[in-house]
Amino acid sequence: MKPIQLFSRTALFLALMILSAYLQITLPTPFFSMHITMQLFTSIVCGFCLPVSYSALCIGVYILIGLAGLPVFASGGGIQYLMKPTFGFILGFLFCSMACSYFRQRKNPTSQKEYFLIGLIGLFLFYLMGNVYYYFSFPILMQTRIPLWLSLFNGVIVSILPDLCLCFFACRVSKALQVLIQ
């Protein structure tokens, strides 16, 4: 694939990532509101449709422009976002997208089941990054410790079912798009 095509697709996914932050459902959880957005969907599809370096570029630029102050995150933007316990989920989009891209290139999936298994790896990394940051940032940023069960409740339990559905749907869309992008 030509570099101009890759950069065009990267820019398209960057725009989709920004737009998908505004398609959200806010969940009232203890301490901080958690958002279910279409960003997980976009990061999985991005990973399946771009090589690893370009998917990392796409999500990395998204994170950088959000930290620079543009309101591209679900709750705005700015460097102060680093001080939110939920920032780890934004970093999780990067790991999710890169994992989906990496395993798509290595395994060359053909069935829906293979796509979904790769998507689950990306989803696992998204949750891992988000919850590790969430749990360990509380004592530092909020000067309070929260029990692990509360961290897992806020970061996993309240959103796992919708995120599994998003993952499944993203894998179906990605499999269908593979015919068009090769």
Task: Reconstruct the topology from this structure.
Elements: H1 3-20, E1 24-27, E2 34-37, H2 39-49, H3 52-67, H4 87-107, H5 112-142, H6 148-157, H7 160-181
Antiparallel strand pairs: 1-2
Order of helices and strands: HEEHHHHHH
> Residue share in helices?
over 70%
Biggest pleated sheet: 2 strands, antiparallel
How many domain modules? 1
User: What average pLDDT do the residues reach?
Assistant: 91
CATH fold field value: Arp2/3 complex 21 kDa subunit ARPC3
**Proper CATH architecture:** Orthogonal Bundle
- DSSP helix count? 7
* Strand-residue proportion: under 5%
CATH class: Mainly Alpha
Stretches with pLDDT under 50, minimum 5 residues: none
Distance separating the two termini: 8 Å
How would you sum up the global shape?
globular
Strand order of the largest sheet: 1-2
Radius of gyration: 16 Å
* Quantity of strands, as a count: 2
Protein name: Biotin transporter
Family: Belongs to the BioY family.
Main location: membrane
Keywords: Cell membrane, Membrane, Transmembrane, Transmembrane helix, Transport
Task: Offer a concise description of the structure.
With 182 residues, the protein is mainly alpha-helical. Helices cover 71% and strands 4% of the residues. The protein has one domain (3-181): Arp2/3 complex 21 kDa subunit ARPC3, CATH 1.10.1760.20.
Structure description:
It is a single chain. With about 180 residues, this protein is mainly alpha-helical. It starts with a helix and ends with a helix. The chain has a single domain, classed as Orthogonal Bundle (Arp2/3 complex 21 kDa subunit ARPC3), CATH 1.10.1760. The chain is globular. It has a two-stranded antiparallel sheet. It is found in: Cell membrane. This is Biotin transporter. It is a multi-pass membrane protein.
